[in-house]
């Protein structure tokens, strides 16, 4: 196929994808979407009036309708939403949407500048941004969740991790955990450098996080205890909304128990723990000996895949995290054009509610084999040198 024809196809693809994105944004503007943002606003109203944002009855009072889900994030995160109370709800709705669009633009810009590398794959990146993992970015827009803010801070942290600037890395990881605490685990990335400064920074940042939460607890112990209670009991969502490993295992176990007639308490949690331990051990075995201190982006990809497939709660909009790792698998690991096209289709076209999890597991396995092959190659070269 001629180069000009390929260029015309790519330009046409960009135009079609852009139009689809505009239609999706228009749909959010003209319809009553951003349900999570409504929860945030009602939570702030409840908190400002001395009620609990972690109580669905209190939220329902301020919403004027029955609210099924409470506020899930730490009490101090409510202050982020307080300025939105200066506006009427519909105005704040548009402001929040506009803010999210700006944030999405910036983290895609980060991807383009630091992680795309081969600009011929720009159209692939754009396709993944629009359709990957059940339209994960668009789902976040529809939901009105804070995942985009979390992603911006995570990818800023990754940039500084690659550039070996641990202080800025720690700062943005703390920012990313402002709403969703689980991203704090990425502080463990600093352990691969094996130096005292990195370890002290990791410990110091962890202590700062604990101090912030301690102050929040002292400020209002009852509210903070309500937050912790909700945090423990927040794994009720399942299926396409939360295609994570624990609900998948729980669903399979329930089917097995119903068919067999058995009644085994906590079987789902036991299998889930075994699954997590198995994946961690396999990952360690496959990548042992690989020089991640020099190949930091490979380390990031491995960790992000592992993080996504073992977390007990990893919602559809959280899969934004896997767009760049998926691009790397397509670009660097899968060789033939046909296989690349099939992989892209498998990532972007959804038929099954847990397909995002299964896709992540398959791509993770492919990438582990790719890294393991490099480890074996390095060992082979080292052995040949020693024999000489």
Explain what the structure shows.
This protein is mainly alpha-helical and 388 residues long. The protein has a domain at 116-145 and 236-388. Helix content is 71%, strand content 0%. It has 16 helices and no strands. The protein has helices at 3-30, 35-48, 56-63, 78-81, 89-115, 122-143, 147-162, 166-176, 196-219, 221-232, 245-260, 267-287, 296-310, 323-333, 337-348, 355-387. Helix 7 (147-162) runs antiparallel to helix 8 (166-176). The radius of gyration is 22 Å and the shape is globular. The relative contact order is 0.10. The model has no long low-confidence stretch (mean pLDDT 91).
Report the mean per-residue pLDDT as an integer.
91
Radius of gyration, rounded?
22 Å
Secondary-structure element order, N to C: HHHHHHHHHHHHHHHH
Low-confidence stretches: none
> What fraction strand?
under 5%
Number of E strands? 0
Largest sheet: none
Please report the number of helical segments. Answer: 16
* Structural class estimated from helices and strands: mainly alpha
- Taken from the alpha-carbon principal axes, the silhouette is globular
Write a concise synopsis of the structure shown.
It contains 16 helices and no strands. The protein has 388 residues and is an all-alpha fold.
Summary tags:
388 residues, mainly alpha, 16 helices, globular
Task: Describe how the helices and strands are arranged.
Blueprint: H1 3-30, H2 35-48, H3 56-63, H4 78-81, H5 89-115, H6 122-143, H7 147-162, H8 166-176, H9 196-219, H10 221-232, H11 245-260, H12 267-287, H13 296-310, H14 323-333, H15 337-348, H16 355-387
Helix pairs in contact: 1-6, 2-3, 5-6, 5-7, 6-14, 7-8, 8-9, 9-10, 11-12, 13-16
């Amino acid at each position: 196929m001629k180069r000009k024809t390929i260029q015309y196809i790519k330009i046409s693809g960009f135009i079609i994808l852009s139009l689809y994105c505009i239609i999706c944004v228009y749909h959010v503007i003209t319809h009553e979407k951003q349900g999570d943002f409504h929860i945030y606003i009602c939570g702030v109203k409840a908190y400002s009036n001395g009620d609990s944002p972690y109580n669905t009855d209190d939220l329902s009072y301020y919403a004027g309708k029955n609210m099924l889900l409470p506020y899930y994030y730490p009490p101090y995160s409510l202050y982020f939403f307080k300025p939105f109370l200066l506006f009427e709800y519909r105005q704040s709705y548009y402001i929040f949407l506009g803010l999210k669009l700006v944030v999405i633009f910036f983290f895609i810009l980060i991807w383009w500048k630091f992680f795309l590398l081969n600009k011929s794959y720009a159209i692939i990146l754009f396709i993944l941004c629009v359709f990957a993992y059940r339209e994960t970015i668009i789902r976040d827009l529809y939901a009105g969740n804070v995942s985009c803010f979390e992603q911006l801070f995570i990818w800023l942290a990754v940039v500084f991790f690659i550039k070996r600037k641990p202080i800025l890395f720690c700062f943005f990881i703390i920012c990313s955990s402002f709403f969703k605490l689980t991203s704090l685990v990425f502080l463990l990335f600093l352990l691969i450098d094996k130096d005292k400064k990195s370890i002290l920074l990791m410990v110091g940042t962890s202590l700062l996080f604990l101090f912030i939460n301690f102050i929040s607890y002292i400020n209002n112990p009852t509210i903070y205890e309500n937050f912790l209670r909700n945090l423990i009991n927040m794994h009720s969502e399942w299926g396409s909304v939360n295609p994570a490993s624990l609900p998948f295992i729980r669903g399979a176990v329930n089917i097995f128990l119903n068919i067999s007639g058995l009644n085994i308490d906590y079987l789902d949690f036991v299998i889930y723990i075994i699954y997590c331990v198995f994946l961690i051990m396999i990952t360690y075995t496959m990548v042992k000996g690989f020089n991640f201190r020099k190949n930091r982006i490979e380390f990031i990809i491995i960790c992000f895949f592992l993080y996504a497939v073992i977390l007990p709660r990893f919602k559809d909009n959280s899969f934004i995290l896997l767009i760049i790792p998926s691009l790397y698998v397509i670009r660097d690991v899968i060789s033939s054009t046909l296989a690349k096209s099939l992989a892209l289709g498998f990532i972007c076209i959804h038929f099954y509610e847990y397909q995002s999890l299964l896709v992540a597991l398959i791509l993770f396995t492919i990438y582990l084999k790719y890294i393991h092959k490099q480890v074996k190659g390095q060992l082979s070269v080292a052995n040949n040198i020693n024999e000489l």
